[in-house]
Design brief:
- The chain is mainly β.
- About 10% of the residues lie in helices and about 45% in strands.
- It has helices at about 170, 180-195, 260-265; strands at about 5-10, 20-30, 30-40, 40-45, 50-55, 60-65, 70-75, 85-90, 95, 100-105, 110, 115-120, 130-135, 145-150, 200-205, 210-215, 225-230, 235-245, 245-250.
- The longest helix has 19 residues, at about 180-195.
- The protein starts with 6 loop residues before the first strand and ends with a helix.
């Protein structure tokens, strides 16, 4: 994550045996073994007589290789931020570990251009799309380059059944839905919806006359619920937002039969 310099280089020195909790992972490199250890409250990467300390991390593992360099995955534990990453460059004379980067998502896609390594990650914020993290292989900094929103290929008014198995966030990330969402909800409610689809829930599924997805805000499910529904007959969009202490707001045509979840939300204080 750009600007988070959580990984530092220490002078080469042997770690005290009593400080080492356990070895997490190891690989062979052109500069010898690279070893990840849990040392007290931190993760330490040891290679070629150097130690890199990831402060506050509880877990790490070697991930995707890209030529001689290797992606390393770090986690502080819990579900708030499942993963951050750094590139390990083990080449003799330039052994380094880049700054941490990522969106907290744990589904990296690794690729490269003519002069850079690229890791693509989804944003965990609905409506932000994917983000490229670009490293030129020279320094420690990894540049964050938002991709912007892409089309989902499922435009408004299309068959609602095509959304079955997808998630509310997929619809909020679709470029072709930005206009209709903005027009229906307005800026403030749309921001609330994006916040409330950040946590666990259910993908779109058929519920009577509707295709429905229900989610809640990450780490605040007891106080928030968001329902996004598409009417099977004509693909019309219906959104219901409930927040503790604020009641329920419904957007779209709710004059006829609505999903059972929306009816339940209307009865909540």
């Amino acid at each position: 994550m750009r600007g988070w310099i959580l990984i530092g280089l220490l002078c080469a020195a042997p770690a005290l045996a009593q400080d080492i909790d356990r070895e997490l992972d190891r690989i062979d490199t052109v500069s010898g073994p690279a070893v990840l250890r849990r040392v007290g409250p931190d993760v330490v990467l040891e290679i070629a007589g150097q130690r890199f300390v990831a402060e506050g991390m509880t877990y790490a593992a070697f991930d995707e290789p890209l030529g001689e360099v290797r992606l390393v995955r770090f986690s502080a534990g819990g579900t708030a931020c499942p993963a951050l990453y750094a590139w390990l460059d083990p080449r003799p004379g330039s052994v380094r570990l880049t700054d941490l980067f990522g969106t907290c998502a744990d589904l990296p896609v690794v690729g490269w251009t003519a002069d850079a390594a690229v890791v693509t990650l989804p944003s965990l914020v609905a409506g932000e799309g994917k983000v490229d993290f670009v490293w030129d292989g020279k320094g420690l900094d990894v540049a964050e380059v938002p991709q912007g929103l892409a089309e989902a290929g499922l435009p408004p008014g299309g068959p609602a059944s095509a959304w079955v198995g997808r998630w509310s966030q997929d619809l909020l990330d679709a470029a072709e839905w930005q206009g209709p969402l903005q027009a229906m909800l307005g800026a403030s409610a749309l921001e609330d919806l994006r916040r409330m689809v950040s946590g666990p829930g259910y993908p779109f599924e058929v519920q009577g006359d509707w295709v429905v997805s229900q989610t809640c805000q990450a780490h605040n499910c007891g106080d928030t619920t968001a329902i996004v529904a598409l009417r099977r007959a004509d693909g019309a969009l219906l959104v219901a937002l409930w927040e503790n202490g604020q009641g329920t707001r419904v957007f779209g045509d709710s004059s006829g039969a609505v999903p059972a979840g929306v009816t339940e939300l209307r009865t909540k204080p």
